[in-house]
Amino acid sequence: GCQFISDAIARGAIAILAPSGIQLDRYLDTDTSISLITGINPRLLYAELSARYFASQPDSVAAVTGTNGKSSVAEFVRQLWTLAGVQAASLGTLGLVTPTTTHSSKLTTPDPANLHMRLHQLAQENINHLTLEASSHGLAQHRLDGVRVSVAAFTNLSRDHLEYHGTLENY
Fold first, then answer.
1. Where are the beta strands (DSSP E) in 5-81?
2. pLDDT tens, 54-98?
3. What is the pLDDT of residue 23?
4. How far is CA 149 from CA 59, 163, 168, in A?
5. Which residues pair with 16 in a beta bridge?
6. Cα torsion through 68, 116, 43, 3, rounded to 10
7. Residues near 107 by Cβ (< 8 Å), separated by ≥ 6?
8. What angle do CA 11, 15, 19 make, to 5 degrees?
9. What is the pLDDT of residues 99-156, one digit of tens each?
10. What are the C-alpha distances in Å from 34 to residues 12, 18, 45, 67, 164?
11. What would the pLDDT profile of 2-41 be if each residue is shown by its tens digit?
12. In the prediction, which pLDDT does 31 show?
């Protein structure tokens, strides 16, 4: 992400989240003032900051991971909760499905700020049960860090994402 610092500043960024050791001097004009937040793992820090900013979350969050079947399991759990008379939602490949609406999503597991904003909105709407898809990419990129998961489910594992994870152990 450091290659985008100059562009972010040109577009009006007021703060930069970057790896430890980054120096903004080479990116700034002398009269420009920008906050710099650094950490060993900026992705993790981004998720933690997002979780603190959007603090409210549904009381019961069920995360579903695995190579295949995440969408089906997440939707089935949402439907079961709904049939039991519980205000429930699901979030993943099918988008955000609530009792009243569906919002499309570009990612199975949204980026941390978007995810935590949606969790906060659900809690504000008294939707206190959520099933969400926890993609292997999302887990590896710390997109779900800060989510208070009550229940986790694992569907299966195949070799589908080894190009990203490198080894089965990493996956």
1. 15-19, 35-39, 60-65
2. 999 999 999 999 888 999 999 999 999 999 999 999 999 999 999
3. 84
4. 9, 28, 24
5. 36
6. 100
7. 135, 138
8. 110
9. 999 999 888 889 999 999 999 999 999 999 999 999 989 999 999 999 999 999 999 8
10. 10, 12, 18, 41, 34
11. 888 889 888 988 999 999 998 887 777 656 678 889 999 9
12. 64
Q: 128, 58, 131, 57: which is closest to 90 by C-alpha?
A: 131
**What are the tokens at 126?**
């008294």
Residue with token string 């995810």: 115
Token pair 């049960």 is at which residue?
129
Report the C-alpha gap between 61 and 17 in whole angstroms: 28
CA distance linking residue 50 with residue 55, whole number of Å: 8
| 65-77 b/e (C-beta count within 10 Å ≥ 16 → b) | bbbebbeebbbeb
Half-sphere exposure of 162 (CA within 13 A, CB side): 7
Which pLDDT score, from 0 to 100, does residue 30 have? 58
- Listed residue (96, 104, 93) closest to 127, CA to CA: 96
